[in-house]
Specification:
By secondary structure, the protein is mainly α. It has 2 domains: about 270 residues, no CATH class; about 250 residues. The chain has 21 helices and 4 strands. A two-stranded antiparallel ribbon has the order 1-2. Strands 3-4 form a two-stranded antiparallel ribbon. It is globular, with a radius of gyration of 23 Å. It starts with a helix and ends in a 9-residue tail after the last helix.
Length: about 525
């Protein structure tokens, strides 16, 4: 098992450290945001009181547990630290179990004395070690910026605990689903459902008399994200919920090992749907095949876009109330959005998040090309009359449509929400212009992922996702960190057109369009001479 563990550590020598460093940096950035924007107890108390008057905000924030700097940091950031740990662990679990079976790596290992038990044990140890390091790095970061050690350790442990739970979720999903794509989709949908369940539990909770704390309803106790928040770092510092989550994670890992023992290698507990004897019209081209493979994930991204559009046009009232009590919030929005009125700034900020969602949908689609190539399933397609350029063009075109679908869903729901609320006519233009601009920004990541796939295929997944993370940090958080304007302007999300006081600022639209056109053409031209590269 030691040799298998070393192999896993080597394979993840880039991906896992990026997740860990990113989580620690987010914790440090959260401290800077709290100190700069909510520097006094009165500021934090006003924000908490306004938040409790609008439970929708609790869906996307943590559990209010007091007005100290540490407790307020946990309120604003802990769910997102836990989400990063969850995603890292779930993907790790699927990659080294179902992913290895798909790639053919599991069969030679199972034929050795290692059998079928040692690989899953090595994956469990690898995942737990990654979560321990992530939790410790988060805790040390918080201690380093000045928070007390007890609360910092609980915060780090809570984030790591959620990672361990989703390590178990990923392991079980890998036993249930036939493909790594299906297993990853199942874990992500489970994550989103449990994240929203935690938010509902907090929104349905009981506020304290001084409006600085909430006692969650029982719904929050059904989610590992809720357990992390119930630890209440920098307040109660309770270790019981952390122990509960670790116990559930261990139980899930045991269940996964038991399920593996009763199925054949390469099989799954949920069998694949029987295929047709002949292909339908919807599978008459390589592009149609990509649509078939990406349809489920695209539907999920579209739902996220629709929710973003609704929030962008309905939360202005709540934000206006908070801004009236704490002008620093309005200043933050102005820095990020560089827009005019508060309503315009709120829509611009939410649609920047929409651009990130659309970019993720596009990159996930292009990454499928690399997965098909690595798994050997691209070779039969390319052995037919389908050429390399046409094959890649199918992925790039579907990725472009994915961007348009996600953005279109947000624009549609945003306009419908404005119509229902009787919003100003000018805001419709803000929604449309900002949405189309973010579609162009997201398309930049489509062609960049395509270029990386053509030039450095083995680095496609890591580099493509890392670029989105960097662009997000620069575009969304750069102004909060005090980065110079030239640094934040490196993010495509900040170069899109915005509407301010009735005037449209095109910013870097033409540069973005040029990058999309040149990058797409270059990727297709270079693909003509590239050979297939098998393996992960």
């Amino acid at each position: 098992m030691i040799a298998l563990l070393r192999a896993r550590l080597w394979r993840d020598r880039v991906q896992v450290p990026l997740w860990i460093v990113g989580t620690a940096l987010l914790a440090a950035a959260g401290y800077a945001g709290v100190v700069q924007s909510y520097g006094t107890v009165a500021d934090r108390q006003e924000i908490l009181a306004a938040v409790m008057a609008n439970p929708v905000i609790l869906m996307f924030r943590g559990l209010p547990s007091g007005t100290s700097e540490g407790a307020f940091l946990a309120f604003t950031l802990l769910p997102w630290l836990a989400m990063l740990a969850a995603l890292m662990s779930a993907f790790l679990a699927v990659r080294h179990t179902r992913g290895d079976e798909e790639a053919g790596r599991a069969e030679p290992v199972s034929a050795t004395p290692a059998g079928r038990t040692a690989p899953i044990l090595a994956t469990i140890v690898h995942g737990v070690l990654a979560d321990l390091v992530l939790g410790l790095a988060t805790a040390l970061t918080l201690i380093g910026v000045g928070f007390d050690a007890a609360g910092s350790l609980v915060a780090g442990a809570a984030a790591g605990m959620v990672g361990i739970v989703f390590l178990g979720v990923g392991l079980v999903a890998a036993q249930l689903m036939r493909t790594s794509r299906g297993a990853n989709a199942l874990t992500v949908w489970t994550l989103m459902a449990l994240f929203l369940l935690r938010g509902l539990g907090n929104a349905a909770g009981t506020p304290s008399d001084d409006l600085t704390r909430i006692d969650s309803s029982w719904l929050a106790w059904l989610s590992p994200f809720g357990w992390a928040e119930q630890a209440r770092p920098f307040d109660a510092d309770a270790w019981g919920p952390v122990a509960l989550g670790i116990g559930v994670g261990v139980a899930l890992a045991v269940v996964a090992a038991a399920l593996q023992s009763v199925r054949d290698l390469g099989a799954s507990l949920f069998p694949e749907r029987r295929g047709r004897a002949g292909a339908t019209v919807t599978l008459s081209s390589p592009t149609a095949l990509v649509w078939r493979l990406s349809g489920g994930a695209l539907a999920g991204w579209a739902v996220g876009g629709a929710l973003t559009g609704i929030l962008a046009t309905t939360l202005s009232g709540a934000v206006r109330q908070i801004t009236g009590q704490n002008p620093a919030v309005g200043q933050i929005l102005e820095k990020i959005a560089r827009a005019g009125s508060l309503d315009e700034a709120v829509i611009t900020v939410f649609f920047t998040m929409l651009g990130i969602l659309a970019a993720c949908a596009a990159v996930q689609t292009v990454v499928h090309a690399r997965q098909e190539e690595a798994h050997g399933t691209a070779e039969p397609v390319l052995a037919s009359a389908v050429g390399r350029v046409r094959w890649l063009a199918g992925y790039l075109s579907v990725a472009t449509w994915a961007v348009l679908v996600v953005v279109g869903a947000a624009v549609a729901t945003g306009c419908l929400a404005l119509a229902a609320a009787g919003g100003e006519s000018e805001l419709y233009r803000v929604v449309v212009v900002t949405g189309l601009g973010q579609a162009v920004a997201a398309s930049v990541f489509t062609v960049v992922a395509g270029l990386v796939f053509v030039l450095v295929p083995r680095a496609t997944i890591g580099v493509a996702w890392a670029l989105i993370v960097v662009a997000t940090m620069l575009g969304m958080f750069g102004p909060l960190f005090g980065l110079p304007e030239w640094a934040t302007d490196l993010s495509p999300f900040t170069q899109t057109p915005v509407v301010a006081q009735g005037d449209t600022d095109l910013r870097g639209l033409w540069w973005l369009l040029g990058a999309v056109a040149v990058g797409g053409a270059a990727a297709l031209a270079l693909m003509r001479r590239r050979e297939l590269t098998a393996g992960g």
